[in-house]
C-alpha cells in the first residue's frame, strides 16, 4: 500500500501523452485494492493498470492514496485531502521533462472519492494564485462518478455499512468522513454548493449501483444520492454492489465497456470554455 498521501502512476505511454486520468478511492478503500478484482484462481485484475491502457494507450493513469480508513487516525477530512490531491497532481505534472501544462485531465471517483474530486476542483479554481493550481482547474475536462453519495446517506445507514463491512462494531469510525456522509450534512451541502457553479464546465458521468449489498440487504448509495441532477449529466446504472461496481474481472467484463467509454467521452469536455 502507498504512503498516507501519495499519487501513484500506474501507466505511462511510451510515446506522447495526451491525457491524464486520476482515480480517487472511497471510504475504507486504497489506491490499489479499491480497483482490483481478485479471483479465486489466477492473477488479480487491476483495471486501471491492466485494462484501461489497452483502450486509451496515450493516457497516463494515476491513482490517489489518502487515509480513508474507517478507523483511521487522520484528522484530515474532505477539504484537507482535496488540497493534497491538487498539490500532488500539480507536482507530478511539473516534474515531467517536457511539462504537462494544459494537458486534459479526467477524474474518476468511487464513493467518497467523488466528493473529494469535487472539492479538489473547487480548491484549484479558488486558489488560482497558488503556483500550478490554475493549470489543474483549466485542464480538467470531466469527471466519472462511481456510486458517489452527492446527497449523503443516513448516519445509521453509514454506521451500519462500516461495521458490517469491517466486522468491527466495537470500534468508532473516523468522524472526519462519517459526519460528511450523513444525509443533508452541512459539510456535504457546502461541498455541493461550492461545486454547483463549476459543474457546467465539466463533462459529468454518474454511474449508480444496481445491486444491493448482500450483508446489508440494501443499496449503499441509492440512485437519488448518486445523481446530481445536472442538465448535462450523463446517468447510467452499473452492475454490481457498491464495492463490486469499480472492479472488473477482465477485458470481457461487459461492465468495463461503458466505464472506459465514459472516460473517453469525459476527456473531450463540454466544449463551453
Automatic annotation (TrEMBL):
The keyword Hydrolase applies. Signal peptide: none annotated. GO terms for cellular component: endoplasmic reticulum; membrane; mitochondrion. InterPro entries: AB_hydrolase_fold, DUF676_lipase-like, SERAC1. It is found in: Endoplasmic reticulum; Membrane; Mitochondrion. Residues 21-152 form the DUF676 domain. It comes from the Eukaryota. It holds the Pfam family DUF676. GO terms for molecular function: hydrolase activity. Keywords: Endoplasmic reticulum, Hydrolase, Membrane, Mitochondrion. Belongs to the putative lipase ROG1 family. This is Alpha/Beta hydrolase protein. It comes from Cladorrhinum samala. The lineage of its organism: Eukaryota, Fungi, Dikarya, Ascomycota, Pezizomycotina.
